[in-house]
Amino acid sequence: MASYRKRDGSWEYRISYKTPDGKYKQKSKRGFRTKKEAELAAAEAERLLNSTTIFDENISLYDYFDKWAKIYKKPHVSIGTWKNYDQTLKLIEREFGQTKIRAITPSIYQQFLNNLGKRYYQGTIHKVHHRIRRAVKQAVVEKLIDTNFTDLAKINAERQHKPIEDKFLEENEYLSLLTTLKQNCPQTDYVQLYLLSVTGMRIGESLGLTWNDIDFKNGLININKTWNVYTNAEFAPTKNKQSMRTIPLDNTTAKILLQFKTEEWTVNPYNRLFIRVNHPWLNRLIKKLTKTNIHVHSLRHTYASYLISRQIDLLTISNLLGHKDLTVTLQTYAHQLEQQKEKDFKEIKKLFG
């Protein structure tokens, strides 16, 4: 039975259900414009939960992953994250077709990862493996298979990591970019890029900002929703609950936003700061301005890297970025942290030198 409530201007549904191993759990999803939309989505979620076809012992890995993802993941992840599950499903289809899940052995699965290793980066394969591993773990719980054939799999990609220069700007490049952006404010695209550069927010979060989210008096920005860039017609939930956060608004950025609101901002029904959804254009603009191969999301990484270089507490950085936990921050910025460790070692040697 589903329950419904209205939060922050949008509707949410919540469903209680019992898992195959006898545990009681709840599923919820928010971001619906009307109660009717929430009811329709809840009905589909309940239909999937009540489906018995997922327990068919002759089911293929492709069909199982598809049903598992729709039941256990789709109600809880953003549209952007869900597209990653869709992509994983396509990789499964290309490699396994309709091969039964019971017929897949550890060596067959390992060969699948080896094949991916010829075409994708290590990090990409790791994420694909993680998704499949979670699904297969559930298949063991449901007694479709006896053991998890992904358990001892190893990932060894020919291309270990994306070039670091494609992810970050050097400090001098970053500061130069900020100067250039400020000189071109209050033009809308430049204001948006500047805001992304000095806050580390995701582009979808910037598109979801309304003027009510900007607290000029206390110097704060409240991130509590995103904009659905796929429909371009509605707000959407943040990536995770940790992504709902408050971040600092400095005086310079506040002045830029106030000037933008007065001189350039376009009035719109939702009172959003930025209404144009054109990610490719912003990517082209940022490449042109920096004369590098970075993209808009690189501004988020550069912001975090800059804070690390200024020895801002890592937990604070993690909270500012809206990471799910500190582990994500440690993994994402391992390269910068290694550089900082070298500096710290030198300082420690001086202390006792």
From TrEMBL:
Signal peptide: none annotated. GO terms for molecular function: DNA binding. Keywords: DNA integration, DNA recombination, DNA-binding. Residues 164-346 form the Tyr recombinase domain. Residues 59-140 form the Core-binding (CB) domain. GO terms for biological process: DNA integration; DNA recombination. Transmembrane segments: none annotated. InterPro entries: AP2-like_int_N, CB, DNA_brk_join_enz, Integrase-like_cat_sf, Integrase_catalytic, Integrase_recombinase_N, Integrase_SAM-like_N, Tyrosine_recombinase_XerCD. It comes from the Bacteria. It holds the Pfam family Phage_integrase. PANTHER family: PHAGE INTEGRASE-RELATED, PROPHAGE INTEGRASE INTD-RELATED. Belongs to the 'phage' integrase family. This is Site-specific integrase. The lineage of its organism: Bacteria, Bacillati, Bacillota, Bacilli, Lactobacillales.
